[in-house]
Protein 1
Amino acid sequence: MASSRLPSTPEDLQSELQQIEENYRTLLKVTTSRALVAQTPKQVIWTLNKARLYRYIPVVPAEQRHKVPLLLVFALMNKPYILDLRPGNSFIEYMVKQGYDVYLLDWGVPGLEDKDLKFDDYVLDYLTRVIRKVKAVSGSQEFSMLGWCIGAILTTIYASLRPDDGLKNLLLLTAPLDFTDKKAGGFVRWVNDKSFDPGKIVSAFGNVPGEMIDYGAKALKPVENYIGSYLTLWDNLDNPRIVESWHAMNTWVTDLIPMAGATYLQLIKELYQENRLIQGKMVIRGENVDLSRIRANLLNVIALGDHISPPCQSESIMTKVSSEDQLLLKVKGGHIGMMAGSGALKFTWPHIDSWLSERSE
Amino acid sequence: MSNEPESTNPLDPFETMNTMWEANLKNWKSMRDTSMESWSKMMIDMVNSDEYSQATGQWLDTYLTMSQPMKRIIDMTMTQVLTGLNMPMRSDVTSLAERLTNIEMRMDDQDAKLDDILHTMQALSASNHTADVPATTHTRPNNGGNGAHASGETHAAKMKGKNAGVSSTSQADAAQLKAKGEH
């Protein structure tokens, strides 16, 4: 914020007033405008309904690139540009520079006509087609797939249902898969209360509004999210690096999208309440999701400070899969901060790169 | 570079005020951060309690129960108004969007099949090319010719199979689409 010294001369006073005015402008700008995000050059190579598949323009010559392409699958209830937040703080930019052929699946914003979409549709209608396109464009029959949050659920289901489809490396980030502990974290407690009826929400709204999902996520840490975040901005208004970073993150956090009603219902009932996935009881279009069928090399990244998907929800998959090559990586940070925070470049991305590069030839 | 603090004049009232102001500001910030931290911990404990889960669930349930009759009335009125005005309703638009998605899916399937055909043709032309090259230099040119011929036959058979596949799938798709449309 402004100088911590009292002005002692008219010049000091003038300079102090100018600084206050400047800070006020910055505050107004970052709280009322959108930051420039997702700037890594890319092209759309496939579309279906609201979904888009992007291929990032390689910057490393073809002969030096890794042979196995990397497909990124983000969650359904937020925009995927958190993976490409801003230059210098972009996982995608980092991986492209490391020589990967990177593809990003953007699920898009579901409309009312998509309210009946389920995990079944996302996995078997969308993900299979996306993978087919990735293979066709890259010319590689093998591929790596990184799933984050709900994206990790989708990629896990896919890896289990289609183990022979060329999936070489499966990377899971903060994957909410095991809901055995009904007291672990706020979400699992809230949705397991007998008065909570997800069916009623879906029948009232069709798709679950982004604002409702956002409230749920923010209410897990109310003081940090509703007050602390703004105090951090206030304290650092004269630090352009922190202000830019805050602006970009705030743009993403406030860019809300709804979640298809049927998917929400399935997520709450079949996963959070009945814990079917980890028990091998989940059925996708008549096919049983048996995690022991997963044979791809597995990197499971867990954030130690994750309050949305606590570590206990992600760890147990390691004992359920048949992958001979598997690694559980615990990193500092929270659910989002682990990949998009200031420490990601130091603590998370290099680990992912070093694990994946050895397995992408 | 010197690390020594600047000399201050204790008799300068502005300097004294500044020192006090800085110290107060620092104290206030530290106090604020400490209280925020304890407040945060308290709130996290609260939202993770069974009582909070119960209260939230009940509040949501009440809200949804209360708002539903009103929503139903609005929906019914809108349906009557739009029908009276001969205008499409939301359900008409969403049904159209669903059908468009189905068409997109069929197109994507066709696109994939075209990709397969192109790849097969490229592979064939590459194999023809490699078969032709030794034919001019090889000591047994007939082998090269035979190879190419055999390869050509295989490709023709493959193409026939593929085309048959495309055709039958297209018919099935069309039937499915028709059924969905009728539905």
Note: Strands of chain A lie at 42-48, 51-56, 70-73, 102-106, 143-148, 167-173, 283-284, 287-288, 297-303, 326-331.
Protein 2
Amino acid sequence: MRFSVKTGAPLLAMALALTACGTSGGDDEPSANGGEAGSCEDIAIGYFGALTGAAANLGINIRNGVELAVQQFNEENPDCEVALEEYDSAGDPNQATGLATQAIGDEDVIGVVGPAFSGESDTAGPIFAEGELPTISASATNPALSENGWDTFHRILGNDASQGPAAATYIQDVLQSDSVFVVDDASAYGAGLAEIVEEDLGDAVVGTDTIQTGQTDFSATIAAIRDSGADAVFFGGYYAEAGLLVEQMRRGGVDATFVVADGVKDPGFIEAAGDAAEGTIITCPCLPPEESDEFFQAYEEAFGTAPATYSAEAYDAANVMLQGIAEGNTTRESLLEWINEYDGEGITKEVSFDETGEVQNISVWAYAVKDGEIVADQEIETD
Amino acid sequence: MTQGKASPETSPGVARSRAWGPRLGWDRGALARRVTRLPRSVKWALIGVLVVLLYALPLLELPIISTPDTDFGAVLFTVASYVLVALGLNIVLGYAGLLDLGYVGFYAVGAYTVAVLGSLQAQLSWWLLIPLAVIITTISGILLGAPTLRVRGDYLAIVTLGFGEIIRLTALNTEWLGAAKGITGVPRPPSVDLFELPHLEWEGATALIDLDDTTTFLSFGVADQAPYYWLALTVIFVVLGADRMMRLSRIGRAWEATREDEDAAELMGVPTFRFKLLAFATGAFIGGLSGALFASRQGFINPESFLLLLSILFLAAVVVGGAGNRYGVILGAIVVAYLPERFRGFEEWRLLVFGLALLLLANFRPQGLLPPRRARRAQAVDEQIDSMEEGKVRA
Amino acid sequence: MSFLIDNFVELTVTGLVLGAVYGLVALGYTLVYGVLQLINFAHSEVWMFGSFAAVWVTVAIGLAPGSALPAVVGVLLLALLAAMAMSGGIALLLERVAYRRLIRLDAPRLVALISAIGASFALAELMGLRDRVAGWFGLEDTLAPYVSSARDNTRFRNPLDTEGVFTVGGYTVSNVDLIIIISALLMMVALDQFIRRTRTGSGIRAVAQDSEAAALMGVNRARVIRATFLVGGVMAGAAALLYLMRFGVTRWNAGFLLGVKAFTAAVLGGIGNVRGALLGGFILGLAENYGSALVGSQWRDVVAFLLLVVILLFRPTGLLGESLGRARA
């Protein structure tokens, strides 16, 4: 008898724990969806991406952008409360499979902002297509994603193929540099972008190197940059490594102009690089935030931090869907149609999608770091 | 953390070795004896019910057990692939006593074989890919094992960890293997659409048959994960049978002898190196099989699916379950793969909760959830031998 | 190849700096391994907490860059003390929560590894969720400088400006480079002497050699184990500050990769061997730099691990052999 109690107790405890979190999970949904029964009862949009794991920082930026849009929408439309469902994939394609299946099985969810990364998009994309659940990614930039024939796929930012040439043009025409060192971070985003820049620059590339995400010591790369005598360095990757790289470059006495892309347009870059960030050129397929000061303030008020990489794109993406819901498109089918035909003013760009789901009329802007702030420099004209 | 009345009778010295046998082990004595006494026909019926229940799990949508925040079929497949990996690692670690921290490497080789030869560089048929994946992984196990298995104890852990990372980094930096972009369009198992199976829907404690929510039997599509789970479950049963046969054969005894005392085993005429290599290759075989299934379920793989962290989770599955006991490691794999998905209700706290759960399990079930029978029998003897010799891994 | 030769001095100095950090973190692995034959997987989190303590001290004091030297040295010393105290404290907490019960039960060593892995997950996540924890107490605004952007990089505002000291072979060695390499060597010597000469040190050696005989001779094993964790933690705290002076940022999950590298360094030098830890660190740091220069940075870890495999094949117990006090058979 004594044994059976001993073996039973942990099982019982586990069962209790599971029941407990089962009920708490169950409680969440009605409170999020329910409330006043309005004209658009039981409508939710999803956020799909990392909230935990190593890429959580980027994912949280995006989630916050979506959350802000939903909050504002619900304040303005108290009779049409839209809920936000979060699908935390940790950026992992494996977890994404189950979550995407879950999302298409949840009839309340009629649109999803995400998936955040290219890798998880590859596994979740076909599932969303099968469930006819429209998605708008605010951050996945692998050009191949729109070529899979998924009707539901959209992205609200330019892919690597649109941004890469702009970065190359800026380096050649504005910086007038003919010796460029290209570094990438071996991520799908960074390596893809660096490859395009490298191709476009052709002979001007005097050297290349590949670092790893999570790496902190770049002394070998910096020695190589100095050795090559390059007067510009292009880095394809995210702000965490970019900050460390430029800081160590400056400390190592390399004063080549540092050129990066939208994955670095984040206060975290300046946080990591400090004074070394000064003069960095950041290309971004997004309009300067003149009209969006309102967004900036609302975001800061809601989350206590400045909007960061992809927050504004996520806000735009969510608003495309929310406007559709306000217009009465409360099924997946009609919302998909709404998104496909959408043409409106977002805070990052004029939003409209072509038939593959790519955003049209992308204008790439160059931003520069001045006095610790990322400020607009000029629009990059590509032919 | 409170320990409660952890161990009043524990006093330093030899006395403790006898004291913690029954306390720490999962004493299956009572239950096992009762089951063994049942007539044969009842036993088979019980097993049959259990097997049917396992296959029916994705359709039953049981409350509490099902995951409310993610698709249960997908979780079941993930759990099944962890179970398969744990069975493989159990041979390496539990039977042969080799601490392998790079086991994810074999999982990766299996997955990459299917993806590279099935989509990126060639378009072989799925029926050919699975055996190829298994063969290539086994060969890679032998190639990696031959030099490294001469290293002993914890040194083996870091060497295997290194190889696991080398495999991932090679995939990440080699264009031919898809680099960081990964590989899309990995072939799925061929579908044979036979009939539709309805799912259940629960309202409180009453189950209703939901005819709108059905699974097509053996249609390996993108969204419905249940057929993949059935495939993996079937593979698990086959592997379990083979595992049992190996364990009871001369090979199993040789592994046990090698694990307990390598020098003594060698002296008694056991070619320990060859048996260690065999364990490594068998482990690689099963790991590669699991990886191959994973890739063909997923349809897409990239190097980030094979991080070092996964090796650590695999190891945790085996140890938490009870290294050396095949049913124990199955339970361990379920804990490690299922709990983080079930804990989604905790949102961003779930990994913290998972870490604490591992900590508690390790501290309050140090022998594993289901320790191998040998562990309990030989507890007292082991204790003394252990304090005399060091540098060996024990189940 | 010519690139390696042309930049040999730079690659060597920066490799040694990196190696010094690896070596100091490796000491924690090596000490615990020497005494308990356990891989203290959570040691990386001990280091990570120390790095945050150092950051928080500098945020609290808020010294402007370019301040007078005494102020700079004062702040750095305070940061060092805070990091050491934090890391030492976390190491003791680990010993209490993750290890003590298992050691007393003489549980299988792998279980202790899993216990440490669980503790490591929990500690890292706790740091990544510190804004939420502060939120429980309604302190997220008060503590904003310490807890905001919890999942993101946190910068260490080094009060000491990097300045070149002398130039060798085309590379200007900076004051920070010198401080890091020299402190690592000094701490190494101090630790070596501590283990050789003090009472606690001989206790550590005695338990490492033969735990039961030591107990019979009146050595308090539990106390020695605590001392071992504390010393390892304090060293990790020092490593945390040196790391921040060189690399400038930390993050909730920064410990994991560094921990793997430091453990590799410990094994390379001969795990359980205090001198081996620093030697292993230096060799690993150099190998990563030279390897990157020869075949590209993307292969640096591959080079490092291959080197490890080759060394272990020829010297199965690491370069200096595994010993905390004496060579083990």
Note: Chain B has one domain: 70-385.
